[in-house]
Amino acid sequence: MKGTTVRGLVVLSAFCLVNISSFGFEGQSKVSSWLLEKYQRSEENPTVLIYMKEEADFSSVSSKSNRNERLRKVFNQLVKTAERSQSSLLNWLDSQKITARSYYVSNLIVAENVSKNQLETIASREDVLRVVGNPSLKNRMPSTTFPSVEIPRGPGANLVRTGATKVWEEYKVKGEKIIVAGQDTGVRWDHKALKSHYRGWNGSQADHRYSWHDAVHKSIGGSSSCGYDLSVPCDDHNHGTHTIGTIVGDDNEGNQIGMAPGAKWIACRNMDDGIGSPEMYTECFQWFLAPWPQGGDPIKDAAPEMAPHVINNSWGCPKSEGCEGGEFERILKATRAAGIFVVVSAGNEGSSCSTIKDGPAFHSDLVLSVGAINHRDDAIASFSSRGPSIFDKKIGPHVTAPGVDVRSAVKNGGYAEYGWSGTSMAGPHLVGVVALLWSAEPALVGKVIETESLIKQTAEPKTSSQSCGGVSGATTPNNTFGHGIANIYELIKLLDVN
């Protein structure tokens, strides 16, 4: 495959529809309205994302296979499918002097500076499924809130609410042997609460090759304080450091901020100072599936055995602004086939119904979506997105977790004494739930569907006065709390009893 590199995705600003009747051609139905409008209003030839029609088949991948074998099979199937189906188009793009990059994780080709005539040729091909744009827009980040009244020493009240501390005490489990991952704004890797939990640190020296990846290879409109194409982890915002902190953070000096401090973390940066593009999220997902060294070859240097067990995604891209669903479906099918658990924040568009409107959270059957509660009174956060999903009309979020005034690590090496609020803060708690569960019950590792079922089954049911999508808030699950508030202690206790 030629030029296999990759880049990112994000929340975009809305665009008005224009009259595109003068731009009619065979295959136009395959082209997104956002991209058609881009050609109408701009003289510049844009970068386009070309999804090939052929999709990888994982029917031969068994959940009973050992983890490394399963990861390798999914990787091989994806690569073979992409190489077979992309070859002809890559040759044509090369003949047109078009710079192209290939991604096997979703059988995607990214092509730069594509003219209208070239777009028409691409879209008319039988082997092309659809063509979309690659916008770069500012992501919506969570906001800080009033200072916490908690004394910032010992386990945070948010961790206590999830049952994590009781699991540590009674079952002596803290996430050992589990690798967690986050794609976000980067991470302050040597933060005192994170350094010893980083897979790339062995206690005396760092090896970042398979534990960190930077999908931001150049400026896409941000002004990153970190720079670009980094071989060493850095965070140019705080968001990524904060979310990883909620999963594993503990400085052994009383700042116990993480759900599963026995787990190890890895990370991929997918935003340029809060700005992302569809290509960068794709690259991070591909790197998680089979990590390769920064600057290396995504296929020849790939190491599927270095993949994480569970991935946190505290970001979203709305369908109304370019993300129509297919951008993530194939990726999520691949991670599920590989036995990698994907957690996604539900979104901060509440309190109205049908506000789970961003991918990948709206893929109800392929991710675990998480809403936010205030851990002091169990009230749903006003901003927490409600279901049903606008994509598949199913109930969401699946569960809820603390997401109001959450204290965690920040990039200056300290802690956010002004707690952060957002479903971005809730999602990492569920990554910690999976890490603790799989550490306590190794037989469940890679069993994504079974794990999702257990999380929902043992969530504390919560009803609501709000009814959405024809589902009464008085029933469980509902479209406000989902199945309820996730509780890892009740989950592990159930398995222990059984």
Tell me about the biggest sheet? 7 strands, parallel
Overall mean confidence score, pLDDT:
90
Counting structural domains, the number is 2
Give the name of the CATH superfamily of the largest domain: Peptidase S8/S53 domain
> Which CATH architecture of the largest domain is right?
3-Layer(aba) Sandwich
Give structural notes:
The chain is an alpha/beta fold and 498 residues long. It folds into two domains: 21-138, no CATH class; 143-497, Peptidase S8/S53 domain (Rossmann fold, 3-Layer(aba) Sandwich). It is built from eleven helices and 19 strands. A seven-stranded parallel β-sheet has the order 9-11-8-13-15-17-18, sandwiched between helices. A four-stranded antiparallel β-sheet has the order 2-3-1-4, sandwiched between helices. Strands 5-12 form a two-stranded antiparallel ribbon. The longest helix is centred in the first third of the chain and has 29 residues, at 67-95.
In short:
The protein has 498 residues and is an alpha/beta fold. It folds into 2 domains: 21-138, no CATH class; 143-497, Rossmann fold (3-Layer(aba) Sandwich), CATH 3.40.50.
